[in-house]
């Protein structure tokens, strides 16, 4: 039992510790807002796409596309939005807050925190995680546009949907996954010089992403909307992932899929939810608070879920 708990803590807590380093670097003025923006751009457009390409390229693609898994995570995401909307609509009257709440309660930081947790637990992200990204990110974006358009003012749904479609086509993460699949299928042999160069960026992706998340924290306004933020955290970190895992176990998904399903649904809210909420005139303070509360509390929930999975023999 103690060994399982130590394993769980060792898997989840280091992620949070790196973020804490980022926070103190910002407080000590070692990094600033300009660095955060440039680092996010570097991670999203260069380091993480290279990492995803490499992971897919170096994974055996002999297995067929698991449509059951893809349908499960996509339908689960949509259902989580619908159910949460029904449950809390009567409690949150302010439309701007409602949009921020819904967006923050379903959109997980799968790219940075999720992949980091997957590596810590299993040693690699495998093939299904990058593949899930190719499907889940477009779904996240489309749902965000619909939610924020219906709950915020001065927005045209058709214009935003077209913008989302263009962003999906140009998304470097999705392009990297597709190129990785294509290169693997073609049986390409990359030169050693190329693979070693890619390796430097692969190592860079995770720590730099976590540092920028921590450096973005601002605790000054954390007390504002704390009750709503905690409710969103309850949905995002406990109710939704627990429901998804229970459904996956009932359906009979294999253990490796159970872990990935938890990570997809159970990681804290993605920082991009704040950017989209602000752009579409939602409640920026609530969006920021949800990101911080879910990120802080996920240190506890991720540890407990991993401990539970380890005890049950799932990992």
UniProtKB/TrEMBL annotation:
Keyword Oxidoreductase found: no
Membrane-spanning residues: 6-26, 69-88, 133-152, 200-219, 231-253, 259-279, 286-309
Topological type in the membrane: Multi-pass membrane protein
Assigned keywords, A-Z: Cell membrane, Membrane, Transmembrane, Transmembrane helix, Transport
Cellular localization per UniProt: Cell membrane
InterPro entries reported for this sequence: Mem_transp_PIN-like, Na+/solute_symporter_sf
GO biological-process terms attached to the record: transmembrane transport
GO cellular component labels: plasma membrane
Family: Belongs to the auxin efflux carrier (TC 2.A.69) family.
Name of the molecule in the record: Auxin efflux carrier family protein
Native source species: Petrocella atlantisensis
Phylogenetic classification of the source organism: Bacteria, Bacillati, Bacillota, Clostridia, Lachnospirales
